[in-house]
Amino acid sequence: MFTLELDHLAVVARTLEEGTTFVEAVLGAEMSSGGKHPAMGTHNRLLSLGHDVYLEVIAVDPDAPRPEHRRWFNLDAYDGAPRLMNWICRTDDIGAALENAPAGSGRQLPQTRGDLSWTMAVPEFGRLPYDDASPALIEWSGGMHPARRLPDHGFRLSRLDVFHPRANDLLADFPALHRLPQVAVREGPEKRLIATISTPEGNRILA
């Protein structure tokens, strides 16, 4: 049996500055520097949500060459306001997790950023199943994890609601999602992610 746990949330944006300004205004947070993803042509900034969960703002890196494959999180096609678009689950066996995930959840691509290394399941056409309501899958290498390096400002994820018109089909396609205590996959009129985050100044909603 493979493990499955919530790893991080991804706010996508046209530019890193635009996405960072959005998150900091909503949460009253100061995001930390992240880094660049050479294989994907993206860069990010990060915020700790506890020991093993974090939030990232991710955008196309304008200084990076365009990769030969589609970027993750559908960033090649994204042109809207910053938005909480994706959620990422970590596993100890990404191959087994993919076998039990919905079709189209991606192929395994090794990634590095500095001394961090991981394998990510990246969908061929940029979007994950169920209009990106299905989580991306990640397996970290060597026991390293970004959240453990980030300053802890007291922000915590209280709840993630994942809405989709076919939520029951998603749960049937990926039964392991039932094992995630902080996550509720629920039926709604459209795909939408809503995170309730506890901050030093009270709960804030990021969507």
From TrEMBL:
<dbReference type="Pfam" id="PF13468">
    <property type="entry name" value="Glyoxalase_3"/>
</dbReference>
<protein>
    <submittedName>
        <fullName>VOC family protein</fullName>
    </submittedName>
</protein>
<feature type="domain" description="Glyoxalase-like">
    <location>
        <begin position="6"/>
        <end position="171"/>
    </location>
</feature>
<dbReference type="InterPro" id="IPR025870">
    <property type="entry name" value="Glyoxalase-like_dom"/>
</dbReference>
<dbReference type="InterPro" id="IPR029068">
    <property type="entry name" value="Glyas_Bleomycin-R_OHBP_Dase"/>
</dbReference>
